Every structure is written in structure tokens, then in C-alpha cells.
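Methods — Computational structure assignment.
A single polypeptide chain was analysed. Its primary sequence is given first, followed by the predicted tertiary structure written as C-alpha cells.
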Amino acid sequence: MADTNFFNGFDFQLLETGEFKEDAVREELIHPILKKLGYKAYGHNRILYSKTLQHPFVKIGSQKRQINVIPDYLLEVAGNYAWVLDAKSPSENITSGSNIEQVYSYAIHPDIKVEYFALCNGKEFVVYSINSKEPILFFQLSEIDKHWEEIEKVLGPDRFAEKKIEKFTLKIKDKKPEINYSELKLPKPIKPRKFATRRHYGVHGYFTRQSWDILQHYIKHFTSPGETILDPFGGTGVTAIESIILGRKAINIDINPLTIFIVNALTIPVDFELLTSEFNKIKDTFDKKRPKSNVEIKEFLTKYKFPTNKILMKDANIKSVDKLFTKKVLSELAYLKHLILKVKDKKIQKVLLLVFSGLLTKVNLTYHNSKTGGGDAGIFRYYRYRRAPNPTVLDVSKFFEVRFKRIFAAKKELEPFLDEVSLSNFTNIKSTATDLSFLETESVDYIYTDPPYGKKIQYLDLSIMWTAWLDLEVTDEDRKIEVIEGGSLKKSKDEYSELLAKSIKEMYRVLKFNRWMSFVFAHKDPHYWHIIVETAEKCGFEYAGAVKQDNGQSSFKKRQNPFSVLTGQLIINFIKKETPKAIQKFNLGSDIYDLVIETIESVIAQNDGADLEQINDELIIKGLEFGFLDILSKEYKDLTPILMNEFEYNEKNQKFYIKTNQKFKTKIPLDQRIRYFLLSYLKRKEYEKEYPTTDDIILDIMPLLKNGLTPQNQTILNILESIADEIGNNRWRLKQEGQLKLELF
């Protein structure tokens, strides 16, 4: 593969800020590409900047003055024009609409007459032929290194000199670059921009959803175009959809038929003119004939079907689906669904049912206005069917139109990525993560998944309003194999743990060797973390480190329950290896309470106050690194008593501090504390494939030791020499297994 590191570590997240404009796209991104291809401002393979052309067809004014058109780049090879390229800002669409038409007009201009034209908005790069509507080359600019061979073949000067251009469809490509995946570093955390796309947020309410940009970050890091990505707890398909966009093969699995329906309706190709026409006909008919009196409401409820399924959740104060709506709204919904089912085109019908289903979230009696503005459904806010004391009754017709516009925009955004090739490489099925027998052993290149967290959310039971209206069947067997604790079947923690373990075993079986699994988890009980790591290690996975990742949103439940609800998440990473290393379990030689206090104090010291997420994450990671998660899970699954008794809590910022006029409580001697933090720091650096300098180590460790007694650098260095080896150029690596004594204290 060519050396294409010509963006000099450019941070592609800058493109999402709104401050990165078209001129910056030219300077920072397009120029390096053209230079690497071999084009210059002079010589044999030339770049002509902003060449002025007279519009061949349009003139203005009574004097018929000429209009000038100016392509950003005109590429010339051996004295002949080869192709044109236009830069756009990151917010502009380059896969459909007027931008393509504009650059097409440059390509066919009588003074130019080239077959190929390209557009780049900083995020994406696309090449078209004037003879085809489909792109011949399309890729994410952040993954240019994985497409460089094809780029040279399509756009390099040599190809034009040879007068030979081959057509490519690169959304799924078979040729894989040679990458040693087992040697990859862990991805760095990013600042998520959860609502920056239309394809996920605003489409349909759901209980959990990963941020699309975190998914893209991990998919790009651990895979190459054409490889297969699995999410066995797929939910609303964020993993799968982002995989498709990035040119991967995607397998989306979930036990909930609602999520499978959402993903299917969102990704199914449709005729947009027909979709709009059918929507308008339905809305016009609905507005004219919707029931307007009590007599008509009663008549409609007799004439049109509506669901009466029982709500099985024991804490629900509404007992059946029909009782979730006023009689007027119920009659309108029944009639609206009847109109949708009359649509003959089944694809259009499915999309309109998705619009209808999304509407249900806002017109039920759990929906109410919130103090922060807008409104929220109690099903999402409280995870139960709780009739609001003062429900907000919204107009069905108005919000049917609002939902349609959002889904139309989402499907338009996805349209360029959903061609015949990408859809043929996409699997979306209702099934269980505990049995992946339909997948071949070692057939998957990467797994990214976000499983249910114990009894936090009872997905199937909570989905009853939507599954009932959509006529989606949920069986007792589905509930039996759903990986949750509690629910209508009252599954125990042990049953949940067993189901979770079964899913991990299946993930291990289908994953290829030397490939990665990223497991997202946000439960505060260390017991579940212990189950994940223990099961993964028993299967043969090697723990490769955890990443603290903000998920971009603070929930109502977090604001109401700051001590019991986590809003952040840890992404724990494993590799499937032939000879995996087990996590070294250290002989602690100290009261676990002292370790817990020591860790909490260090997080507070490092961050000048720490919230529950920061404390919980650091304890989980320390437990993983030193092998005491099992002890944490038994003795310290609830940190609230320790935190409230030993530390000072600020209700405004929800952070903990060392109590006023009080030194740190830890009784662990300074040299042992240094050893504890050095081991942790070096272990993490090893997972990241980094070897820090002495200065790096001291600068990282020193803030963790604030307690009125600052150690000398030599003290840290002496302990460092006992647990690590200097590997040249003043860099350090933890002593290898067998060399390191496992006594922590």
C-alpha cells in the first residue's frame, strides 16, 4: 500500500464543527491528494486553478452578456484535459443534487470535454463518469489510505496518458490491504456529535442508541472496506448502517422485531416521488375524513382495527395498549393505519408504517411537556408505562407530517450508500445473540456491540406499544432468550449472566483470529464486568484494554439519580488470539478498601473533583488491570455509602471532593502507592502499543499522589526500574510475564 500519510495527522472531527469551510478543504485536504497523485501547478501533469469558462448556453440581460463558470481544478495530462474537480464545504451534499449537476456541466463544456469529474467536501470524495449516474469511485476521505491503489488507478496521470480508465464500484471491495490487526493500538476517545446526522436521530424513538461517529471511529480503526462487521445486539442498526456507509459488509441482529422493522424500513430503497405522492394522498384523505364528533369516534373504533394487547410490565399503571391513547387519538390512529395499509407498493407502505410508528411516541398518554422545553414520553424517561399526570395531547395529522419529513430526510441522506452492491452485503435479521449458528465459524472480521445492561431496560416488554400496532409478533420464547434481567418472566441475575456468557461464546466462535471485539458497557455493578471478562477469557479472548468514552448525552434518569445511573460508557476491547495472555491477577497484599479509597482519591486529585462516571470507570479499569473485579463485584457493587461517608458531594456539579481541611485517607505507604499507579499506567500504555519516556511517566504519576507528601523523581525512578525495562531512547516497557513479581503491595 502506498504511503499516504499526507494529511499530517489531520483531525477529521474538525469537519463537524461548522467552522471548516470550502477554502480549508482545498488547502488542507485536496492539495495533498493532487500532489501525491503527481499533479503540479506546472509541467507535464498540470493543475489549472479556477480556470474561467464562458457558459455555453446561458446569457443574461438585454445585451446577452456572457456568464462565466469556474471549476476549482482542471487536471491536465500531456497537454490534454483529463478530469475536473470541485471542492465543497463539509456541510454540502456531493452524492446527489445540484452540486453534481454543476461539476457535470464543467466536464461537458465545449472547451473541456472530459469524461470524468469529481467532488470533495472534506468528508467524502466521489468520482463520476458523464456516461453513468452511479459513482465509479467513492470513499470516506479519512480512509484514503485504504483506497489509494484504486485512486491511483482511476485518477493518476499514467492512466490518462494510457487512455485507459476502468470502472470501479468501491463501496464493497474484495481486495484487502495487508494490515497486522493484532498490533493495532486502542482508539482514542472522541467528542461525539450524536445529533449531527439525520439518518439516526429523529427517525424513531428507542431506548438506547450509540453515537454514529463513535461507531465510525471504531469501524475505520479496526477494519478495511469490504470486511464483515457483526452487531448481535444491533438495536436500531447504527453499527450496521455506519458499516454500509463505510463500505463494509454488515450483519445486524436483534431479538426485538421492532428494531429489525425500523432498520429494514430505513434502508429499503424507494421511489421518492412516489413516496411523497402516497404520503400526500393519505394525509389529504385523513384530514378530510378523520372523526370529528363523539359519534364518529365511536363509529371509527367499531370499523377500524386497533390493538388491545396487554402490557405485561408489573409497574405499568396502564394495562393495555389501547388505553395508552384517548379515544379520539385511538380512532384516528386506527384510521390512519388503515389508509397506509391500502398502499399497493409494499416498500412505500413499509416506510409509511415507520412514519406511523414514530408518531406513536408523541401521541400516547405517557407523553408530557418537560421543564426544559419540548416534551418526552414516559416510556423513554422512566422505562415504564406511566400515564402522565397532565398528558400533552398532540395533533395526529400535524405530527404525522413532521415524522414524514424527518424520515424522508433520513432516507435521502442514506440514498447514495444503498445501492445494489451494498444492500447485497447487508444482513438484518431477528434472532438471538446466544445462537449465531447461521453464521460460519471465523467468518466475521470485527464485532462492535452494546448489550443490554442487566435489568436497566426491558426491551421487549417496553416495545409492546409499537409491536402491537405494527402487528409484530413477540413470543414467550423471545422473552425467554432475551438477554436481560427481570422483565415479565422475572429472570434472575444468574439467568442474565448465563445468557450474556452464551452470547460472548458465540461471538468468539464467529470472529476470525487476530481480530477484535469491542464491547460497550455502562453498568455500574462490577459483577457484570467480571462476567464479561471472565467469560471472554475462558473462551479464548485476550483483554486488550478499555477506553473511557463519553456517549454525548446526559439523560433525565441521570439527572434524577446521579448515584445510580451512568451516562458515560467504557468500551472494553478483546482480541481473538491463538495463544491469548490472561489478565495477570496480582497478589494484592492489602485491604481492598484501601485500594478503592486510593483509586477514588487519585481520580479526584487528577480532575480536581470527580463525578460518578469518572470514579466508576477508573475502578472498573483498575479491577481489570489487577484482577480484582470479582472482589469489587462482591463487596463494592454500590459505591454510594463510601462516597457519601468519606467524601464531600457538590450537588450543583454532581462531583465529589476531598472533605475540607482533610488530607487523603489512604493508609497505603507512598512507595506502594507509586508502584500501584506505575503498574496501571504502564499496563495501559502497553495496550496502546506505546512506550513512555521517564518524563512522561513522572508527569502522569505525580498528580495522582497529591496528599501533602510529594515524592522525589528519584523515588519514582527507583520503583520504575524494579517493574519495567528501559528499551532504548529513555523509553520504558513493563517487565514481561514471568519477570514481574505479582505482589502489588
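Note: Confidence is low (pLDDT under 50) at residues 57-64, 168-174, 555-565.
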